[in-house]
């Protein structure tokens, strides 16, 4: 009778990859994807404008939540179980894990598709943006496709093969770029509204997932044909495997879903609060002077208030009640018609304001997306080390992952904080640079906390502490929602308060995660050397960037005749911004080397790391 657990055996042709070897492949893939994404999001924002950007992001937030619920924890669980089974040579177990996970992905994806496609109007109204419904429907088929993608990617990553994931991500991005931009541009030229153009852009996402699934399926079949089929192990029962998959996946899904769920709740509350303040406190309009045209809103408010019965409160609660009554009425009254017009005017204005915030979020997401390379590699790498009872090796990988994360996230976050307005002015001609740039500067601080938090969560999950990150994210999410609800609801702060809750949320999550790691993980890394040196280097770098941009701004800008404030052309701003970034990069790299912020041990985990260490004399 075959043994259930055969002894470890080296398969012919099996590649020995290091943690940062896989991370480097994913990092390169993600950098390419984000570069393509820049060529997608930047012109897209300028094509569909502020309101279309709000419609796009509102639809995408709904998609992200259902997608995360369907797929977030399962690929991690698959990669973890596949990595552990590979570590002890259980090839039949690996194949059965994949087959069962693919079936589970398809079932969850189908449920999410039904919700998105048939309840799109309800989901859009929940976001206080009824015009996002078309985009939500356009994204519905992508949920099913991404479910299949997650199964294939989890299987490949569990084998330490990160290349298929990177290639499929690039395929997705290219399809999104070509199809999405072409459709958005064509719809705008055809006279369609910004909401339909946003839906056309989102269709590119769906097309990309379909093509990426086809590639991953082809790669999987070809790879299986090349691998030896003989194996002596007897796989566990389907029930035991599914139980183990769900045991790992459910807590991770809850943890990952918290970010998306909090984002949806926060986005809905922010847009709702913006509309409420705009209606109930016209004095708040001065906060957005130069950002939007308030004439349609002013006329709609006057028409509605004149139609109200004497003694009726002119507030958001009254308007909401009348809009619901108008939707249910076959022949709306004059008051209900005025209420519908006012509701549309408020939504249009909040879409304009939130579109600027969405543009800032698009840039903020770049640093956090880069961390996907590390989070995708740290769980199977640490899990494999623990399966081999190599606790020191697992701790070494965890510490290096945190150090590399700090070295990458600190300068990116500080750069966004210092150069928020210039970056927006450079990239998004359709946005208000002062509004969106101010929001981006605050989000730059958030990027630092969120990047390190994501990797901390992965470290905890790899060590089997899957519930603790969920609790931490719940606490952080509560802080974010409460903070934003109150700040945005203040007439003197408004939309400018939206990023503040994110800063407090991820700052709290990071502190709690580090405290937990210090308590529960053996041989835990020393946090001081990990964070202090990147912080010092980033602070000096930020000062250099600020000084260089300020100097170049003074040289390249001018005071127009009859004006009082200096203005700068797009080309002058581009030259000043790129000059500041170039100087900042040189300063940061020099400081990292001088402070020895990266160690020979870190570099030894990377491809050609020993040569790099000798070059840097570490």
Task: Describe the protein's architecture and organization.
This protein has 21 helices and no strands. The chain has 618 residues and is an all-alpha fold. Helix 2 runs parallel beside helix 5 and helix 5 runs parallel beside helix 7 (194-226). The protein is globular and about 80 Å long. The chain starts with 18 loop residues before the first helix and ends with a helix.
Give the topology, please:
Blueprint: H1 19-71, H2 73-87, H3 91-118, H4 120-126, H5 133-158, H6 163-189, H7 194-226, H8 238-280, H9 295-307, H10 316-328, H11 334-370, H12 372-387, H13 391-418, H14 420-427, H15 433-462, H16 467-488, H17 498-520, H18 527-556, H19 570-594, H20 600-604, H21 609-615
The sequence of SSEs as H and E is: HHHHHHHHHHHHHHHHHHHHH
Annotation, overall tally of beta strands: 0
Q: Residue share in helices? A: over 70%
Query: Structural class, from helix and strand content?
Result: mainly alpha
Quaternary form? single chain
Q: Work out the count of structural domains.
A: 3
Proportion of residues in extended strands: under 5%
- Spans of at least 5 consecutive residues whose pLDDT stays below 50 are 1-17
* Gyration radius, in Å: 26 Å
Tell me, briefly, the overall form: globular
**Average pLDDT:** 83
How many helices? The count is 21
Main beta-sheet strand count, sense and barrel state:
none
Distance between the termini: 54 Å
């Amino acid at each position: 009778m075959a043994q259930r657990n055969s002894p470890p055996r080296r398969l012919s042709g099996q590649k020995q990859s290091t943690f940062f070897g896989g991370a480097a492949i994913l990092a390169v893939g993600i950098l390419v994807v984000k570069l393509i994404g820049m060529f997608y999001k930047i012109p897209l924002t300028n094509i569909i404008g502020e309101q279309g950007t709000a419609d796009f992001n509102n639809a995408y937030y709904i998609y992200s939540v259902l997608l995360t619920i369907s797929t977030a924890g399962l690929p991690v669980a698959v990669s973890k179980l596949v990595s552990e089974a590979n570590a002890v040579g259980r090839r039949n177990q690996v194949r059965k894990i994949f087959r069962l996970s693919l079936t589970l992905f398809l079932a969850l994806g189908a449920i999410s598709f039904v919700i998105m496609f048939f309840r799109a109007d309800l989901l859009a109204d929940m976001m206080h943006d009824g015009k996002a419904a078309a985009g939500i429907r356009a994204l519905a088929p992508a949920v099913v496709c991404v479910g299949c993608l997650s199964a294939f990617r989890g299987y490949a990553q569990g084998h330490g093969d990160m290349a298929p994931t990177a290639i499929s991500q690039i395929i997705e991005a290219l399809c999104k770029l070509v199809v999405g931009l072409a459709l958005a541009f064509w719809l705008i030229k055809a006279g369609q509204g910004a909401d339909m153009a946003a839906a056309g852009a989102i269709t590119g996402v769906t097309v990309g997932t379909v093509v990426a699934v086809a590639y991953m399926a082809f790669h999987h079949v070809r790879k299986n044909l090349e691998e030896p089929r003989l194996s002596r192990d007897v796989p566990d029962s389907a029930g035991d495997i599914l139980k183990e998959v769900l045991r790992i996946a459910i807590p991770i899904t809850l943890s990952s879903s918290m970010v998306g769920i909090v984002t949806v709740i926060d986005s809905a509350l922010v847009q709702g609060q913006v509309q409420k303040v705009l209606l109930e406190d016209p004095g708040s309009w001065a906060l957005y002077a130069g950002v939007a045209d308030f004439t349609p809103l002013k006329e709609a408010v006057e028409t509605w208030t004149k139609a109200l019965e004497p003694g009726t409160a002119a507030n958001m609660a009254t308007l909401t009640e009348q809009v619901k009554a108008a939707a249910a009425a076959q022949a709306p009254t004059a008051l209900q018609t005025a209420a519908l017009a006012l509701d549309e005017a408020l939504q249009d204005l909040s879409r304009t304001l939130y579109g600027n915030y969405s543009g800032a979020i698009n840039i903020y997401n770049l640093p956090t997306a880069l961390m996907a390379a590390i989070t995708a590699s740290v769980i199977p790498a640490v899990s494999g080390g623990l399966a081999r009872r190599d606790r020191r090796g697992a701790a070494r990988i965890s510490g290096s992952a945190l150090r590399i994360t700090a070295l990458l996230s600190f300068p990116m976050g500080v750069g966004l904080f210092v150069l928020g307005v210039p970056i927006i002015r450079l990239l998004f001609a359709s946005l208000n640079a002062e509004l969106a740039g101010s929001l981006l500067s605050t989000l730059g601080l958030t990027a630092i906390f969120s990047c390190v938090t994501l990797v901390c969560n992965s470290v905890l999950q790899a060590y089997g502490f899957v519930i603790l990150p969920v609790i931490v994210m719940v606490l952080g999410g509560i802080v974010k929602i409460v903070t934003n609800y109150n700040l945005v609801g203040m007439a003197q702060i408004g939309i400018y308060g939206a990023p503040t809750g994110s800063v407090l949320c991820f700052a709290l999550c990071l502190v709690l995660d580090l405290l937990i790691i210090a308590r529960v993980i053996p041989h835990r890394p020393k946090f001081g050397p990990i964070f202090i040196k990147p912080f010092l280097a980033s602070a000096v770098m930020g000062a250099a960037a600020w000084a260089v941009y300020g100097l170049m701004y003074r040289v390249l800008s001018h005071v127009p005749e009859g004006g009082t404030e200096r203005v700068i052309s797009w080309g002058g701003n581009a030259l000043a911004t790129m000059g500041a970034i170039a100087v900042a990069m040189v300063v940061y790299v020099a400081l990292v080397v001088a402070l020895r912020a990266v160690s020979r041990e870190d570099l030894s985990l990377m491809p050609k790391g020993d040569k790099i260490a000798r070059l840097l004399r570490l």
